[in-house]
């Protein structure tokens, strides 16, 4: 992937316009889902992801060959998503969480969860809703680190590079996020897993 | 204790499989030996496993198919706004809260200030020269050529007054239609000359121009009578004014003043303006 990125960067640096759409094709899902995980809003995630690619397009002529494409894209996405959350009120964030729940239900239906027995389906829907709600209740910075490591497959070191912080800071933010999520979800976790911890 | 601290700092790497072989060996050994750290690790793992059940909702159908097209459209729109300065300007205006209404209000305010300054300057600035003083008074008939001295201005005043007087003296009510006299116009000019006489007399008195001052005073009285005429049909009043002009010998005095002025200026009397015998209007 890194080698492919380097070829892509070379093509972009030489002014190859088609390289831009190759880059979009390669990263659009990653960028969209990262923005979605942080904002919890489909429309916001779409807008942020498109704006990220617009930034790339605008800087095509000045793009450095030694730049780390993946890190840069993730960095712009996280910053734009956190900015978006700050602009919005907490009320809106909660509303987004509700939308998330509705979308989750639609997704579960579309992905065949409706084939499960109704009790399992309801339980699954409730779990999705609780997790989404709990994620909305932690700080944007903690949520960003959590979703980067937990849902987007980024290593701790990569996350630190993207956020331009030390690994220690990333781990500290992750621990805080986990502690808060545990507090929010523990009653529900015991109920559904029977785990007393 | 140090081992517990090290273990807790590596719990995340342990869960996500990011440990080096030596670190993994250390963690496996420590967790099997330390109940407290094992409990802590299990607690954290439970949260991460539970939250790992989250399924992202898929975007609406067709979202990914139209993604590049939407982006292309966005790029084209931005490029178009950059090439069209008007659109770009409008966008900039919108961003900082400008509206055409606001711009019009600002322009109107600036225009009002400019008009106010002009009016203020015209009405309230001190007049430095006598020429400005006389010509800028409201209602004063402005001379065709601005006079530079008091005598010249006085002479100009006398000339204009003479035209009014001659129009009245030459009017024959038995032969002419009173409307031909255009009395409303003569009255208006007379009023303006009366107003101007007040300022002119003061200046003449200050500069010891007694003869001119007396002539202006005589003219002022006659002009005041003309200004106060009620209508062109009041032939008796017109006749009274005419008698007053003749009895005072004002026209004679005017001619003498003209003559003196011409001699002082070094012009021949013939060169002085000779008003026509029957001027209908000024």
Which helices and strands occur, and which strands form pairs?
The complex is a heterodimer of chains A (197) and B (282).
Chain A: H1 2-13, H2 17-39, H3 42-58, H4 69-87, H5 90-110, H6 118-136, H7 140-150, H8 156-163, H9 167-193
Helix pairs in contact in A: 1-2, 2-3, 2-4, 2-7, 3-4, 4-8, 5-6, 6-9, 7-9, 8-9
Chain B: H1 2-9, H2 11-16, H3 21-33, H4 35-51, H5 67-83, H6 85-95, H7 100-124, H8 130-135, H9 150-169, H10 183-206, H11 210-227, H12 235-248, H13 250-265
Helix pairs in contact in B: 3-4, 5-6, 9-10, 9-11, 9-13, 10-11, 11-12, 11-13
What attributes characterize this protein structure?
heterodimer; A: 197 residues; mainly alpha; Rna Polymerase Sigma Factor, Chain: A; B: mainly alpha; 13 helices
Provide structural commentary.
The complex is a heterodimer of chains A (197) and B (282). Chain A is mainly alpha-helical and 197 residues long. Chain A has a domain at 1-88: Orthogonal Bundle (Rna Polymerase Sigma Factor, Chain: A). Chain A has helices at residues 2-13, 17-39, 42-58, 69-87, 90-110, 118-136, 140-150, 156-163, 167-193. The termini of chain A are far apart. Chain B is mainly alpha-helical and 282 residues long. Chain B has 3 domains: 2-51, no CATH class; 67-123, no CATH class; 141-271. In chain B, 69% of the residues lie in helices and 0% in strands. Chain B has 13 helices and no strands. In chain B, helix 3 (21-33) packs across helix 4 (35-51) and helix 5 (67-83) crosses helix 6 (85-95). Chain B is rod-shaped, with a radius of gyration of 50 Å. Mean pLDDT of chain B is 77; it is low at 128-147 and 270-282. Classes of the chains: A mainly alpha (197), B mainly alpha (282).
Rg for CA atoms of chain A: 19 Å
**Which whole number gives the mean pLDDT of chain B?**
77
Radius of gyration of chain B, Cα only, in angstroms? 50 Å
Order of helices and strands of chain A: HHHHHHHHH
- List low-pLDDT spans of chain B: 128-147, 270-282
Secondary structure category of chain A: mainly alpha
The arrangement of helices and strands of chain B along the chain is: HHHHHHHHHHHHH
| Number of discrete domains of chain B | 3
Question: What shape does the CA trace of chain A take?
Answer: elongated
The helix tally of chain A amounts to: 9
Q: In terms of structural class, how would the helical and strand content of chain B be classed?
A: mainly alpha
